[in-house]
């Protein structure tokens, strides 16, 4: 039983698949398509034009001795599922292309892994071609399963996709610069592991960003996200670590046409401050070296944290709208724009190869809090003024008696 919103990680998926890999029948069918989400089953299981798009798949699930449905699985886990299965056992790999199972020769004396790639479709509720593609995939799965059953082959089936077909829309990061009361940051299942720099046997620098890109001369866009965190096609050998100074050096070879080499340095210091009686880690500057001779330097604002913590900020860059700014320090720096989202950096006191508690760039008194305080002061002032006016009200010293003569009040009184 999984709690709502839980995303199965690579390790959890491997543990869940162990019963399949250790059972007596060593035949496994892996059915893969490009995109698929659990919401597709919810929608396409309804009747459309007097027919069910996934009728056969439902029947297979109902007739199966056991089944397991995982609503959300990490994309990295499904992307490398075939490689994991091949490493777990000495399978005889068979790619089924013509889907004619009657001509398929199966040697049940050894483990068999059958791989089927289904046609992809775009999830569009109002598109007839999408519904037809879903129905056709359902027929393919039905023919394949029934064909194997007719041959008396015992097998298990895994039906998955390399990426989700429906991704929940998230508000743009520019609108999430400030804290949200009683809210936690949503875990991103598509996020990549942090880049780590080791010094001997321990990690001394950790760096992560969901988007890491530059703009050179207002015209050349350089996206460094994938080559830094996914492909790891970056040279970090020039990085330096010590108890007082750390430098993260990222060297790229021909990141784009026209730039042969690019080096980006994050220079950090660890100093003791008597006012707080503790050490603070500070990002002093960011430097860009292009083709070994063009040097740009940026000073940094508000990027510091206690030395035992990491630093996190939703947006870091050269824009005036970002909470943590990189300010050009020389003429060459004016030719560069830097954009970093979900920035997290730690250069000291790293334990267990993981980020420590993050000190965020957002201050406590956000614009919303200031607006609330100013509004409250204005309302309190109006309330105080009203109470003061009520307290100044007085009653007449004499009143008219309806049974006596009329009361005459001289104007001089």
TrEMBL record:
Annotated GO biological process: regulation of cellular pH
Keyword Acetylation found: no
Keywords, comma-separated and alphabetical: Membrane, Transmembrane, Transmembrane helix
Annotated V-type proton ATPase subunit S1/VOA1 transmembrane domain residues: 363-401
One MF term in the entry's GO annotations: ATPase activator activity
Record Pfam families: Ac45-VOA1_TM, VAS1_LD
Membrane-traversing stretches: 368-388
Topology in membrane: Single-pass membrane protein
Compartments it resides in: Membrane
Domain of life, per lineage: Eukaryota
InterPro entries on file: Ac45_acc_su, VAS1/VOA1_TM, VAS1_LD
Primary location group: membrane
GO cellular component, as recorded: bounding membrane of organelle; cytoplasmic vesicle membrane; endomembrane system; proton-transporting V-type ATPase complex
Positions of the V-type proton ATPase subunit S1 luminal domain: 203-348
Family statement drawn from the similarity comment of this UniProt entry: Belongs to the vacuolar ATPase subunit S1 family.
Full protein name: VAS1 ATPase
Encoding gene per record: Atp6ap1
